[in-house]
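Ticket #4471: structure export looks truncated?
Reporter: QA, pipeline team
Priority: medium

Steps to reproduce: submit the single chain below to the structure queue and open the exported record.
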Amino acid sequence: MSNLYIFRGKSATGKTLLTSLLSKELNICVLRKDDIFDPLSVYLDNNSINNKACYDILASIVQKSIDNNVDAILDISLPHNEYYKLFLSKINFKDTKVFSFLCDCSNEELWLSRWIKRLENPLPNQYFKSLEEIKNHYSKMDIALMGNECYIDSIYDVEQLLSEIYSFMELNKTI
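Actual output as written to the record:
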């Protein structure tokens, strides 16, 4: 049996920081959508096609990990529930314990301040050009906790967030 730890949510909500720390502590590989998106963006200038390719590649890698009984951490965006469900439908989770985390930042001012820093020096996966564009993009999404998912609010310090993550994992390891 393998374990899959999925961190999803809006950009700038701490997914990469948390998954990096968790990866080091658990000695588990992190699979990041952005690590696929950025190199592909050199060859694909259509973000929609690039995103679809990224999620298809990730689903394939996750499936191989599951088939080989290997634990993995998945750092993806997919805050929109419909897209998250579509991604999950591509994977056969046989003999796999899935721990899903929805990352957010309930303080909009703090979240937007993180975006201001990103807008100063954007990476290829950060294709928004303004705060209005960011707000508009996320306002159209159905972002909510799914069944047996843990809410992680990045307004809190990292140690507290890690404690919440480990508590959720301990509580749900036999469910």
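Status: closed, not a bug. The export was complete when the record was re-opened. Leaving a note from the reviewer for reference: Residues 47-67 form the longest helix (21 residues).
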